[in-house]
Amino acid sequence: MSAPVTHVDADALAEFRAGLVTGRRGARIAAHLAGCDRCAALDSELAGVSALLASVPAPVLPDRVAQRLDAALAAEVARRDDPERAGREPSPEPGEPARRARHRGFRLPSLRVLAPVAAAAAVVLAGGGYGLSLIAQGPGSQATASAGSAASAESNAAKPVAGTAEPTGRAAAPLASAPPHSGASARSELMSPANFTVVASDTDFTKATLDQDLAAELRVSPAAGTQHAPSTQVRGCVQQVADGAGLVRVLSAHYEGHPATVIVTSTGHGEEAWVAGPDCSGTNRDVLFHTSLPPGI
Amino acid sequence: MPDLGQPWPSDQELLRRHVAGDAEAFGELFRRHRDRLWAVALRTVCDPEEAADALQDAMVSAFRRAADFRGESAVTTWLHRIVVNASLDRLRRRAARPASSTGDEQAFEALVAQDGDPARAADTRLDVDAALRILPPQQRAALVVVDMLGFSVADAAAILDTSPGTVKSRCARARARLLPHVAHLQGNRSAAESVQPAQGGDT
User: Fold this and answer.
1) Is B172 on the interface with A (CB under 8 A)?
2) Which ipTM did the prediction report?
3) Fold classification of B7-96 (topology level)
4) Which among A11, A38, A170 has the least Cβ separation from residue B27?
């Protein structure tokens, strides 16, 4: 580092200010600062950086982000109430619905838990939104009249925005009756291309190993990974690729070393996997690879 | 901690209720802190869409992992830590993608400009936000947490999952690197222009 007679550069000064330079070297810097106007000025400017940063007003959380968070939270509350619904189980046990129903009865600490579930279901009815696909599944989902009334009673001042779910508010939810439980098997619970979540995956898929990698991915409940709402571009891409088919899973992953969206659809005849490139959108069908998945994945 | 006195129920109590099954407790807790958490995410990620994704990832993760909270730190520290991790995670993923998001800049400026504070403050913020982008993510996160949010070095170390020494060092490098880009905002630019850091060290 600098000899005592030379000036002190900003890096060294910043470290000195942070208390990282001690001993003889620290003493040299301190001595130099005392006698050098130029370095003393630099030192005070460095102090000014922190002061400036502290003075910058904080950004305001945009309404649409707040609404999205509320919707995602409602979905989480619903998922916790009924985790199996959110996950795609590799092999549903016989008698699963009965066990699940009993489970619910014992696990829920109070009836209040059910109100947000109903509210979240109503959000889906209201036109879909971010992060709600976990509960927006299948005709037997929790779409009930009581859910609708719970949500309208709850709706708050925030403005709805196109493509964003109605905020669900909180706290004042009336006690809605428990939504009927469909007990549908995990496999039949598909997400709508209009309303799905994306699961982040670390997998770098390749053409040769796509089947087996995907089988491994699908064995894991999406709830176990990091999920996020799709960007507008990804949503457009998925809608175009799925072409009306239900979604089994949408993964944000890599394919042959490049970022890609892996879309698994179910058509009733079987499941199909599509690998879409990063430029895929509602107007650009950038599909890198497509295959039908062998049954039993 | 920058927080001035906790409202009742305390953060810890809300988290406890959440773990015990209260469906509303987490929402109340998160709403209490989400403005600051948004600031951390936005400034670390430097992109409003990705910041929103990161904040949502973090919220979901905190919701699910609440039972893991052991209370060695304040609940806010824990929440900030999860948001910083989610933000850095987003950046890592973005780094792996080809740079194709040209709309980001405009969206970002529209977003930071929208909340109508006095023009000068908004200008300063835009300049600072732009300058922050030149920093490596880890340095930026440290600087945001310490200098912008006012956490102590010890709390910042817990949030950033590193040692206090590393926090100090990242902040020092970040300040030195930022200096030439923000000196004009301080009204006296001579020294910064005449003595530029030889080169920015990396973490």
Assistant:
1) yes
2) 0.78
3) Rna Polymerase Sigma Factor; Chain: A (1.10.1740)
4) A170
